[in-house]
Amino acid sequence: MEKPILIIDPGHGGKDPGGGSNGLWTEKDFVLKISLYQLSRFQELGIPAAITRTEDIYLDQQQRTTIVRTSGAPYCISNHINAGGGEGAETIHSIYSDGRLSLKILEELEKSGQKIRRAYTRRSTTNSQEDYYYMHRQTGSVETVIIEYGFADNLGDIERLLQHWQAYAEAVVKAFCEHMGYAYRASAIGLSEPWKYEGVNYLHQEGILLDPEVWKEKINEPMPVWAVTLLLRKVHEGLKN
Question: Fewest CB atoms within 10 Å of the CB: 1, 40, 96, 117?
Answer without folding.
Answer: 1
